[in-house]
Amino acid sequence: MNTNELFKARAELDAECLKVLEAKGKDYAGSSAENDRLGNFKQVASLLAMFGVNPSTPLGVWSIYWLKHVFAILAYIGQHTESEPIIQRFVDARNYLDLGWGLVSEQKSARRNTGPFDYCICLFDRDSGDMIPDQECIRHGI
Predict the structure, then answer these.
(1) What's the sign of the alpha-carbon dihedral 108, 113, 116, 122?
(2) What is the pLDDT of residue 129?
(3) Torsion of CA 14, 15, 21, 24, to 10 degrees
(4) Residue extents of the structural domains in the chain
(5) What is the four-CA torsion angle of 22, 23, 27, 31, rounded to 10 degrees?
(6) 20 to 30 A from 39, CA-CA: which of 5, 90, 111, 113?
(7) 120: left (phi over 0), alpha (psi -120 to 50) or beta
(8) Contact 28, 40 (CB under 8 A)
């Protein structure tokens, strides 16, 4: 592929990316799409921080993926937007619940073999990015 062919291919990709970005704008940002196209990322970050969810854990990552579908369903309900068929959003959200439960079940099973607690709580400091483990877990070496 020569330079001109590469730039032509890239222009085709750019055009497709712009179509998707425009079509899914409400899914990405909800009603804040006119004010902040990055609003969804900020809302998810705030929500995770509010509940002390560490986004670098498997369940933390799962929650981000699951919330993507939940927010798309909310956009359908509140703004009547549907960048993908709404039934697919419900299918995805439901399947992600099964995957999340799989992660929880795996975690509970592993912890039963390592200590006296089913789980331990770690807070996530959004300013420093540090995890702050629960003191009881530290005392028991979990």
Answers:
(1) negative
(2) 65
(3) -140
(4) 3-139
(5) 60
(6) 90
(7) beta
(8) yes
